[in-house]
Write a structure and sequence with these properties.
About 35% of the residues lie in helices and about 20% in strands. With about 280 residues, the chain is α/β, with parallel strands linked by helices. The chain has 2 domains: about 130 residues, Rossmann fold (3-Layer(aba) Sandwich), CATH 3.40.50.10860; about 130 residues, 3-Layer(aba) Sandwich (Rossmann fold). The strands form 2 sheets. Strands 2-1-3-5-6-4 form a 6-stranded mixed beta sheet, sandwiched between helices. Strands 9-8-7-10-11-12 form a 6-stranded parallel beta sheet, with helices on both faces. The longest helix is centred in the last third of the chain and has 17 residues. It starts with 10 loop residues before the first strand and ends with a helix. Bound molecules: 2'-monophosphoadenosine-5'-diphosphate. The site of 2'-monophosphoadenosine-5'-diphosphate has 16 residues, from helix 5.
């Protein structure tokens, strides 16, 4: 791999959010920039709520080429942008900003990451899919499934929130206990249950997981969550959230550079870092 030195032409990309310290994005993007010999660098910017507007304005002022946006700003960032991609508008959340000659346009690549991660294993069209959770992360996932003509059911601890989201996307909904009787092709966890440091938690029991052919956990730290372990034991095929992370990152990378990154390398680097190597 050719080492690219930071110089007067280096383009800057990054991540805005709070917290950002444990993000995998700098590792996967910087490795991919280097592999393609692109003079770009990716940084993490921890931004406090009252500074969000100034942080976005700085993209124009110091010509930052691109940003990823993470929790808790995916919705809050929208009023500070000049343009919004149609899909990002429908989802109501932005995870990628492109600075094109000081015009800031917002995109959502989270849903692209989801679709690619699933379609490596199965098509979505006509499949029955149960989505757990009805928060911010669930919105992009629900959009991706409806867009690809999957048959969606949203289950959430707070049923009123599942109802609201289901109304918007024209699908069915219910409480988490419905997992006892629903049978489906795919189960997706969009909640943060099972995420480091609470690795011993799981949103579904092994007895419930037998009803699903494939289980995808959007949580990628740890790489194999308790939910995925139980799913594997129950005979399901499993998909790690790491694939979603890499594919959403790759789609953002392409929007900024116009080039396709090496996703295998991105995944390899993320696994290494998550294992603490
Ligand atoms: P995000 O933007 O990461 O999706 P969020 O908007 O706060 O975060 O949504 C969190 C989701 O995880 C919600 O669906 C939440 O359920 P409630 O709507 O009932 O709060 C779900 N969630 C979080 N912790 C949970 C737990 N311990 N058990 C079940 N669901 C949980």
């Amino acid at each position: 791999m050719k080492k690219i030195e930071i110089d007067g032409n280096t383009r800057i990309c990054g991540l805005i959010g709070n917290p950002v310290a444990h993000s995998m994005s700098p590792f996967i993007h910087n490795a991919a920039f280097e592999k393609l010999g692109l003079n770009y660098k990716y940084f993490c910017f921890k931004v406090e709520n009252n500074n969000l507007r100034q942080a976005i304005m700085s993209m124009r002022a110091i010509d930052i080429k691109g940003m990823n946006v993470t929790v808790p700003y995916k919705q809050q960032v929208i009023p500070f942008l000049d343009e919004l991609d149609e899909v990002a508008k429908k989802i109501g959340a932005v995870n990628t900003i492109v600075n094109n000659r000081k015009k800031l346009k917002g995109f959502n690549t989270d849903y692209i990451g989801l679709i690619k991660a699933i379609e490596e294993h199965t098509t979505i069209k006509g499949k029955k899919i149960v989505l757990l959770g009805a928060g911010g992360a669930a919105r992009g996932i629900a959009f991706g499934i409806i867009e690809k003509k999957g048959s969606l059911i949203i289950l959430n601890r707070t049923v009123a929130k599942a109802k609201e989201l289901a109304k918007e996307f024209g699908c069915e909904y219910g409480g988490l206990e419905l997992m006892d009787k629903e049978k489906a092709d795919l189960l997706i966890n969009s909640t943060s249950v099972g995420m480091h440091p609470k690795e011993n938690e799981t949103i579904a029991k092994k007895s419930q997981l037998k009803n699903f052919k494939i289980v995808l956990d959007a949580v990628y730290n740890p790489i194999e969550t308790k939910l995925l372990k139980l799913a594997r034991d129950a005979g399901c095929k499993t998909i790690s959230g790491l694939n979603m992370l890499v594919y959403q990152g790759a789609a953002s990378f392409e929007l900024w550079t116009g080039k396709k990154p090496d996703t295998k390398l991105m995944k390899k680097i993320a696994i290494k870092k998550l294992k603490g190597e």
